[in-house]
Structures are given as structure tokens and as C-alpha cells.
Amino acid sequence: MIFIGMGANLMHPVYGEPVNSLKAAIRTLEQPDLMVIKRSSWYKTAPVPVSDQPWFVNNVIEVETSLPMEGLLSRLHEVEKEFGRVREVKWEARVLDLDLLAYDNQITLNQDQTKGSVVPHPFMQERAFVLAPLAEIAPDWVHPTLQQSAAELLARLSPVQAFEIVPD
What we know:
Layout: E1 2-8, H1 18-29, E2 34-39, E3 42-45, E4 56-65, H2 69-82, E5 97-103, H3 128-137, H4 150-156, E6 163-166
Antiparallel strand pairs: 1-4, 1-5, 2-4, 3-4, 3-6
């Protein structure tokens, strides 16, 4: 199972509202070598860490792909760049954020994020904006290092991380 976390909290000059940017990003990601097989609802979520940024719209998609992990990560970065994502400050507001959350049951040794893919995503178990949509589409998916399901990880989170489902 391959999962991608998606988020946006800035207006896009072409697509407008963040939810429209995310819908357009899904269409852009879909190619002969990558097919979206499940999509969660849209979740409006507070920024993490807490800041005065606008709230994000987030979701999670499950994909099937013939791309290897590094190829998929490159595709995600290409789409972010195409949508105008600029990486200057960690956790800044953005028009599009695409995170590779899990690639089958693979575990990389690059958990410090210095280069290349990091799977499973090193912070996913701490974030409601990832776990709520993930648990919606794959509640029984088991984190390969923590050995807990998406639903179990979500249940462990503090209720401080606010989110609400946004109409489609």
C-alpha cells in the first residue's frame, strides 16, 4: 500500500482555494504509471506546529504505481514545483504539499531526512491531519515500525489537534 499525504493552505493563482489545488494535483499525479485508487475526504486542519498561518486543507490518497520509491518522490516534488511550491522555510504556508507517507512496508534508514525518501513518514504518527484521512481510507493499515494500525494511532493522539471535514 502506497499513501501520499496532501495539503495546501494558500490560494493558488490558477486553481484558487486550496481544495481546488488539491483536486488539480490529483489529476496531475495520475499518469499511466500512477493511479489513485482511494481518496479520503477533505479535512480542514490547524497548522502544525501552531502558528498564525491559515488552516490547511488535507487529505490522503492511496496509489498504485510502477514507479520505484525514489521515482515517486521525484514525481511528487515535480508536481509541487509545477504548482508553485517554493521550499524556503520549514513548515511554512504553501500552495501544495505532497508527502510520501508509506511505500508498501518499506522502511528507510534516512529518518533524519538528509537525503532521499523517508518512509514511513517520520512524523505521521503525531499528526491528526495525516492520521484522520489515512484511518478513513485504510483503518487497518499497520505502521511498519510502530506495529499499530492507522485507527489505533489516531485514537492515541491528543484531541488538541483540531480538524473538520470539508464538503467535496
